[in-house]
Amino acid sequence: MLAFVAATIVRVHAQDKGPIVFVGSSIFHRWTALERQMDPLPVINIAFDGAQTDDWNRLIDMRVIPLKARVIAYYCGSNDVDAGDSAVRIVGRIRLFIDRVTKALPETRIVFVSVNRAPEKRDRWDVVDDINGQMRKYAERNPRVQFVDVNPALANADGSPRVELFMNDQLHLRPPAYEAFAKILKPVLERVFVERPF
């Protein structure tokens, strides 16, 4: 019954509010069951493989702002880590994206999804953890930003990666990983979507 009520509320809001736009790199782009797993939330996925934070700052006026999102779900920075960039520089570009969204769309909320501690990045997990730690603290100070940590779904109790959730490249995800992501992320998006704007 509660699920039905929540779905009804979401559908009512969706009639006259903007969508939830998924922005980012391959982790979002390859989420093939996204619409089904997020139903009834109105989602649009514009992520693409290989995207870095600079790409979205370059494309924001053309690809992001015109969609007038009620919520933006953001996963980017993973490819920046692979490129050897520092956490400080990566977070700076993420914050620039958020600032530009806030200026253009002051009622839009941002949900930042943590950078994955993929086995392929094991030698740079310190950078991944630094990005996530900085963004968690930033979200605590910025009411327009929500930090969501999906890494617990990808790890065993001892912190080692659940390798069965990763493709052979040890980077991209198998369907069960996305099922786990949906269980973590969807309740957050449902809540943020219906909250009163600023």
Write up what this structure looks like:
The chain has 198 residues and is of the alpha/beta class. It has nine helices and five strands; from the N terminus they run H-E-H-H-E-H-E-H-H-E-H-E-H-H. Strand 4 (109-113), helix 7 and strand 5 (145-148) form a beta-alpha-beta unit. Residues 1-9 have low confidence and may be disordered.
Task: Draw up the topology in text.
Elements: H1 2-14, E1 20-24, H2 26-29, H3 34-38, E2 43-45, H4 53-64, E3 71-75, H5 78-82, H6 87-104, E4 109-113, H7 125-141, E5 145-148, H8 151-154, H9 175-194
Helix pairs in contact: 4-6, 6-7
Uncertain residue segments: 1-9
CATH class: Alpha Beta
Q: If you consult CATH, what is the topology?
A: Rossmann fold
Which sheet architecture does the biggest sheet show?
5 strands, parallel
CATH superfamily: SGNH hydrolase
State the domain count.
1
Number of beta strands: 5
Strand order of the largest sheet: 2-1-3-4-5
Mean pLDDT: 93
Give the CA-CA distance, first to last residue.
30 Å
Shape call: globular
